[in-house]
Design goal:
Strand order of the largest sheet: 2-1-3-4
Number of strands: 4
Strand content: 25-35%
Order of helices and strands: EHEHEEH
Helix content: 40-55%
CATH topology: Glutaredoxin
Length: 88
């Protein structure tokens, strides 16, 4: 089971760069397929409105909004474990 992750970004965004690094780390432990979408693109604007993303970075897991702003690796890993059925 692959978890599809979409990261809404914008250029010159330090929090976006940090979120990419967190997702790269998590992808070593979980079956993630990560893509990025510019928040200012038509698709990014639609996703941002639908998910209540106020500013980048925004993260969607399997097309569901997960959060925006500073990405918490602990919170993300907890959710990924839940989605893949890992209980430890």
């Amino acid at each position: 089971m692959t978890i599809e992750v979409v990261l809404l970004t914008q250029p010159d965004c330090d929090l976006c760069d940090r979120a990419k690094a967190v997702l790269d780390d998590c992808a070593r432990d979980f079956p993630l397929e990560v893509s990025t979408v510019e928040l200012n693109s038509p698709r990014g604007q639609e996703m941002g409105r639908r998910g209540g993303i106020m500013f980048p970075p925004g993260v969607f897991l399997d097309d569901e909004p997960f959060g925006y702003g500073r990405l918490s690796e602990r919170k993300l890993r907890r959710e990924l474990r839940r989605r893949v059925g890992v209980t430890s």
